[in-house]
Write a structure and sequence with these properties.
This is SMI1/KNR4 family protein. It comes from Corynebacterium curieae. The chain is of the alpha+beta class and 315 residues long. 36% of the residues lie in helices and 20% in strands. Strands 1, 2, 3, 4, 5, 6, 7 and 8 form an eight-stranded antiparallel β-sheet that branches. It has a two-stranded parallel ribbon with strand order 9-10. Strand 5 and strand 6 form a beta hairpin. Helix 8 packs across helix 11. The radius of gyration is 22 Å and the shape is elongated.
Length: 315
């Protein structure tokens, strides 16, 4: 049977069968064949939104939704995120007191509060079945079998609701939504406060016009994205400048991506401004490397000439 192709936004390191055997020896467990092949081909890693979403019956809900963020594999991801099934997997297993009868392999979008494991020794479930584990539930109620095998689990993975096929042209409906969120979606309090602290009249209008020139789901860099982020950061640096790239897209409450995900939010959607991690990081690194974003005593500051250009381009 052919192996299903799984796409990773940030893959780990491909490896040989010898490396797989080394991982298995360290774990004391033989991996399912489909998992072995996945790690060999890709290193596993951070999943693409193209195949990161599944539903299953749980807690009275016939279609409980789970977004799978990462499948552990070999080495770090190409962005430097921990990803090793042995080193990182063992650390998390110890930290969250995961029993040795299962093997942690998947982390959800909500973190380790919801994780996935392969069964090796729990008698209530089939050998090598894939289990959903709710860390906040007590007892067996928090464990649900979602697939009889790792191969079946991979076949369950479908597109995330926020996934946009880059090969498909943006529809008029998409454009209408981008206009509506940009014009009407409220900004989070922190961004509103920061805008009011700047000396720039009409900055919120500039930011909203710049947002409208971006796409529904930003997955690539563009001049329009840079203009938008320049204006947003110009506001933020007047309140609390970021300390480094770890504050740009680090799943922190006040990180740049979190602020924008929760801004421009309208009723029909679960998130506001939608953008992958990579474009944020490329914007930051580009501005730092060219000397436009400069570290000072209490954080990084964007040069005035960059801001002036962004204001002109957002008219």
């Amino acid at each position: 049977m052919p192996h299903r192709t799984i796409d990773f936004e940030f893959p780990g390191k491909k490896c040989t069968s010898l490396r797989i055997r080394s991982l298995e020896k360290a774990l004391g467990k033989k991996l399912p064949e489909e998992y072995r092949e996945l790690i060999k081909r890709s290193g596993a890693g951070i999943l693409s939104l193209k195949n990161s979403f599944l539903t299953f019956p749980y807690d009275g809900d016939d279609s409980y939704e789970l977004s799978v963020e990462q499948i552990l594999g070999n080495g770090q991801t190409r962005e430097g995120d921990p990803n090793d099934l042995v080193d990182y997997g063992r650390f998390l297993a110890d930290e969250y007191e995961i029993p040795d009868e299962v093997l942690l392999f998947g982390i959800s979008e909500s973190g380790m509060h919801e994780y996935l494991a392969i069964n090796y020794g729990l008698e209530e479930y089939p050998h090598l079945s894939v289990l959903y584990c709710d860390d906040e539930a007590e007892g067996p109620e928090g464990i649900v079998k979602i697939a009889d095998s790792f191969a079946d689990f991979l076949n369950l993975l479908g597109p995330h609701p926020d996934y946009v096929d880059e090969d498909e042209e943006e529809t008029q409906e998409d454009k209408n939504y981008v206009h509506k969120r940009s014009a009407q979606g409220p900004l989070v309090d922190k961004l509103q406060r920061a805008i009011q602290l700047t000396p720039t009249p009409g900055l919120e209008s500039h930011i909203r016009r710049a947002a409208e020139k971006t796409t529904l789901k930003v997955r690539k860099i563009s001049p329009e994205l840079f203009t938008f982020l320049d204006l947003v950061y110009w506001a933020l640096q007047h309140d609390a400048p970021l300390q480094g790239i770890e504050d740009v897209a680090g799943n922190k409450p006040d990180s740049l991506d979190e602020l924008l995900t929760h801004s421009f939010l309208i009723e029909e959607h679960k998130a506001g401004f939608l953008c992958s991690v990579a474009p944020y990081e490329i914007w930051w690194n580009t501005r730092v490397d060219e000397g436009s974003l400069v570290q000072k005593g209490d954080g990084f500051y964007l040069n005035q000439d960059v801001v002036d250009k962004a204001l002109e381009e957002s008219l």
